[in-house]
Design goal:
By secondary structure, this protein is α/β, with parallel strands linked by helices. 40% of the residues lie in helices and 18% in strands.
Length: 177
């Protein structure tokens, strides 16, 4: 019995082929889109099969890593106690899907923090860094030296900044220039 033909690639999937990429295929979420990185030499049929495989993996990962807003608020409280004890407790911390250019935002006036759902597939230490960054805004609304001193109390701040810069750089489009 012959293999069934692969399904067509959904329109929300961006495929990025690379001549330098030899053996690996990877994928990540970028807002409402999925970016699949693969070697240039794959056939159209292999491409379609890999896209299907990577979409299934991302969906499985999303189900496994979904942290509720309540757990996010508890995590923010824990991080504040550990790294920023002078920070007032946030009134709310929640996931939002409308932040495609930011990782998080904070409104000091009502002590609300919002994190982009794009962070949900990232390592916990990266999410923690963004939480610490937004918690620091509850004391210091601008990105001045005292703000960064607060943020860098988080031990993995520099590592998380590099991680987020890498994710941002890998999702640039030529239309952005």
């Amino acid at each position: 019995m012959a293999d069934s033909p692969p399904r067509p690639i959904p329109p929300y999937v961006d495929i990025r082929r690379s001549k330098r990429r030899k053996r690996t295929v990877s994928a990540y979420r970028d807002g409402e889109r999925v970016v699949v990185l693969m070697p240039d030499r794959l056939s159209a049929a292999e491409e379609a099969r890999w896209v299907e495989t990577m979409l299934a993996r991302l969906e499985k990962q999303r189900g496994r890593s979904r942290v509720s807003d309540e757990k996010l608020l508890a995590r923010a409280h824990e991080l504040a106690c550990r790294h920023l004890p002078e920070v007032p407790e946030p009134a709310s911390v929640r996931w939002v899907s409308n932040q495609n250019r930011r990782w998080g935002s904070c409104t000091p006036a009502d002590r609300s923090i919002r994190l982009s759902t794009r962070l949900q597939s990232m390592p916990a230490w990266v999410v923690d860094y963004v939480l610490v960054h937004e918690l620091a805004h509850l004391i210091e609304p601008t990105h001045n030296a005292s703000f960064w001193a607060l943020v860098h109390r988080y031990p993995k701040a520099e590592r998380a900044e590099g991680y987020l810069e890498g994710v941002s750089a890998s999702s640039l489009n030529l239309e952005d220039f």
